[in-house]
Amino acid sequence: MLNFLQPWSLHFPVLLVLIPLLGGVLAPLLGRGSRGWAWAVLTMGFATLIAIEMLLAIRAGGAISYPLGGWPPPFGIELRVDMLSAIVALVVTSVSWIVTIYARRSVQMEIPGDRLGPFWAVWLLAITGLLGIVVSGDAFNVYVLLEISSLTIYGLIAMGRSRDRKALVSAFNYLILGSIGASFILIGIGLLYAHTGTLNMSDLHQRLQANDGGATVLTARAFLLVGLALKMALFPLHFWMPAAYSTAPSAVAGLLSATATKVGIYMAMRFLYTVLPTEGGTLTDPNIWLLGGCAGGAIFYGSIQASRQPSLSLLLGYSSVAQVGYIVLGLAVGHIDAMTGSILHLMFHALMKGGLFLCAGIFLYRLGTNDFTQLAGIGRRMPWTSAAVVLGGLGMIGIPGTAGFISKLHLLRGLFLADYPILAMLVLLGSAMAAIYTWRFVEIAYLKPVPEDAEEILEAPFDMLWPVWLLIGSSLWLGLNPAPVVEIATDAARALLGGGG
Amino acid sequence: MIPLEMLALALPLFGAVLPWLLRRQHTLRNCGTLLLSVALLLTVIQLLPAVLQGQSSTVVFGSIAPGLDFMLEIDALGLIFALVASSLWILNSIYSVGYMHGLYGANFEGQERYWSCFALAILAAMGIAFSGNLLTLFLFYELMTFSTWPLITHHRSAAAKRSGRIYLAILVGSSTLLLLTAIVWTWVLTGTVRFEAGGILAGSASPTQISLLILLFFFGTAKTAIFPFHQWLPNAMVAPTPVSALLHAVAVVKAGVFTVLKLSTSIIGPTAMQQSWGAEVVAWFAAGTILLTSVIALSRPELKARLAYSTIGQLNYIVLGAAVAFPAALQGGALHIAMHAYGKITLFFAAGAIYVASRKTRVDQLDGIGHRMPWTMTAFLIGSLSTLGLPPLAGTWSKWLLCVGMIEAHQWAFLATLLISTLLGLGYLLPIPIRAFFAKESTAAAVKGYEDHGEAPWACRIPLLVSALACLVLFFWPGIYDQLAQMIEGSQP
After folding, report:
1. Are residues A161 and A290 in the same domain?
2. Among A215, A234, A267, where does a domain finish?
3. What's the number of domains chain A is made of?
């Protein structure tokens, strides 16, 4: 553990929220130019450091409970960080740090100069909200922080308007759907509160486990499931996502795909396993088949749609729909290996898809578009960026040697052991279909001739390329040496299925 | 010091980087690749003594979870494949220079990609040969699929694109849907994916499960081109001929049959293979593939397509051997990996040399060509006879052992299949050299601008003469290959 962090180690959970919050509040004061960006990089770097330290601390000493203001739970507000929260917090901070480093040029190109200060403020506040959800041990606080992150994210997406006016429509659509989702979650939490009289998550779980309350809790579960499905873009409630991601500023798309949907999935894991009552640590059959069915639909529909989109951003958006399906599949079955696979995929997908969206952003930066018609022959014009897309795509397929394979392997093992071979076949079919949409890009980039009228373009600037390769490269490294990551994911899965940290 | 196994992977890996480092210096790059290929062969030879003395060691280069590693372990079967692939890489590197430079000039388009992907495919072959468990094998198996796709689509034409799609659809589809299922299932049933003598499934899986696993494994390994997954191979012939020669007569397809032999000996186990109905089904499919492709080969006028169908048939000899799994059949299958490789690569080299010299691609254009290209066509004759398994050439021994295996297993129908396919082979291969030497040349068949051609450049001719010579030498001294084949699990009666 780093020494200068030692005195603060007790306060890691709250610092993780406070640092980006303060950073966000101060960002508008820094004005134009690159200063806001440098501030954001600094803030996120510090947050990442804390997330790493926190993960190490939890690995050594178990879950951390932090009573806000010194009021003991369940009366006061509790921040509670177990292995799963620490992993998701680390994913959110580290990937958004790298995306922030990358974002300087593309943000300066896509956002008008006088809005740069507010942009970075909103950027950091969105991350604050997401991190808050992850560390919160209180159901109502989860809702509040969810609204903070959602409102800021609507703003971030709408800022894509100077590039593409459609950003306003997709941000508005997302606003409506996101608000419905959040209201559903609020209703669900309210019903649980009405039934138990507590909002503290572990307290809720204990009381619900003792008295599962029949219709009230069932209704609450239904509201929560629908709300969460909207937030994590689970088929058939995914339709806001591809539009939002493809019209948002390209750096925002990278940020959201790696963090926002992942936090949605985290919330689903949290609520389904450590708040709502479970049957001996797993979901009941109707729940499994409902979630499994939606996940299967996501894999099929997302992959098919991805292979017929006109631009790389849209392709990636639909591919995310499909990949969320994988994660939910493992989450639903509730077998330890499948859950490990889900958590692994949550991490690895953040790395790979984050990197891929950044590549799409690079094409946008150089070409002004990432429509496939303009990407013909791009493999020869921008070899490093295109190679990164191919490697990321191989990870989506789950080729051995990439991180995607590791998560898929655990997921498959879990599905086999939990005796759902049909769902296992879904995973395999999904990866075969990922090959189709990945290869669409490969054929366009490498087999089509460069258009006659194409202007000379340079490969992406180095300060945009290296964050991309850091993300993609680490996903490849983890494809061969994932043992430590698999270990912590297994710990997290075990804690989750054991009913709380 | 880095272990020799890792060196065998590092050399081709360096070969994959080299073309990008030496973008302008072709000669230096060609010499460098050649040097690397020689160094690789020497490395593989260095590995021989330990295996012949029965020692074994493992190298771990990545870990997923305790007991689930990416690891290398060398055995006799792997060495056969590695020796074949590395020795023929040398010949092919020379041949590539002659062929590609002869056709497209010294500075042909996409040369970096060409050389780089070639080396990657060899890396994958080495990895498959030396893999110590199913996981590692799968890693390199997929690497081989993806590294050879750019070679198949080298010309970027519509036909190349279409073939590339078929190639990926069949190979990736079968390996992710069937092979990976089988691997995970094996892992779930036994808790391990290690290759162990006599198999790991016995005792952990019921006979029905074993049979289903055999079906998943054998049909998932579509690189063996077993019916109904054989279409990728004839389609892959749009690639430049050196690619067809090394990859689709040696590295890629032999990776497939190597995999099934390995599965038969070290995962399922010969005893379980002999008793299971799954293996029976696979054997019938393999036999059907042999006959079917022999008949199709008869009707194909393009030389390379005919060779491709002949390759499918020969590969399924090995699949048949692996499925029957009696000692002689396994030994014959293993030996056939080597023996067929030298014969078939000679044929492909010759087909390419003919194209370079005369631009002829069809069998019916080749009447009388033996007088213009005596060296090439003599080598073609030797290659054909060796492929058919006729003495005094290398293919004889492996076919002999395969036949003995069928007799041991009392599989008379399969024995008949082998013999009939030899007869059919006589029908589709031998007429080519015979007509080349004895038929009268027709001027109508000549390609415009190449009426008065001679032999192909020496860089094309030397490799094919060397491999033809190897067919001859290996008949009289099958030596090391024979010794290794006898050491394979389950090949001792």
Report:
1. no
2. A267
3. 2
Q: How far is CA B328 from the centre of its chain?
A: 21
Residue A317 and residue A345 share a domain: yes
Residues A359 and A441 in one domain: yes
In this complex, is the C-beta atom of A428 within 8 Å of any C-beta atom belonging to chain B? yes
Instruction: Kindly state whether residues A382 and A445 are assigned to the same domain.
Output: yes
Q: Does B390 touch chain A (CB under 8 A)?
A: no
Round to whole Å and give the CA distance between A308 and A229: 24
Pair (A498, A363) in one structural domain:
yes
List residues bridging with A79 in a β-sheet. A66, A136
- CA–CA min distance A406, chain B (Å): 7
The pLDDT tens digits for A357-392 are 999 999 988 888 888 888 888 888 888 999 999 999
A37: helix, strand or coil: helix
Final residue before a domain boundary, out of A215, A232, A267:
A267
The whole-number mean pLDDT for each consecutive block of 10 residues of chain B, a chain of 493 residues, reads: 83 90 85 91 90 83 82 89 92 88 80 89 93 92 92 87 91 91 90 86 86 93 89 88 83 92 90 89 94 91 90 92 90 90 91 88 85 89 90 87 91 91 90 88 76 80 89 84 79 64
Q: Write the CA distances from A99 to A44, A232, A350, A355, A361, integer angstroms.
A: 10, 20, 11, 8, 11
Together in a domain, A260 and A392? no
pLDDT digits (tens, 9 = 90+) for A238-250: 888 888 888 888 8
Residues A297 and A424 in one domain: yes
Query: What is the C-alpha separation between A220 and A184, in angstroms, rounded?
Result: 9
Q: Which of A416, A424, A480 sits opposite B70 (nearest CB)?
A: A480
Inter-residue contact A500 to A278 (CB < 8 Å): no
Query: What pLDDT, on the 0 to 100 scale, is given for residue A164?
Result: 75
Residues from chain B that touch A425, judged by Cβ atoms under 8 A, are 177, 181
Domain containing residue A377: 283-501
| A484 and A397 together in one domain | yes
